[in-house]
User: Fold this.
Amino acid sequence: MNETKSPFASTTIWGAGLTVLAAAAGLAGYSISADDQARAVDLIGQIFGLWDRVAVIVGGALAIWGRIKATHRIG
Assistant:
């Protein structure tokens, strides 16, 4: 396990954070089931998986657009 990733891409981090929030909500009188927590972590993982692809597409398009619109050579 030598590869790294952003903490925001970690299901473990999101799961732990959601568990802390659920515990805090429980102290405040709200109830969040373990199933709801698992679904929320799954949804967050899907959003970040999609966001990663969108960021790559937008970044590439922005680089191409910037080069097309450039008024000076890269030197």
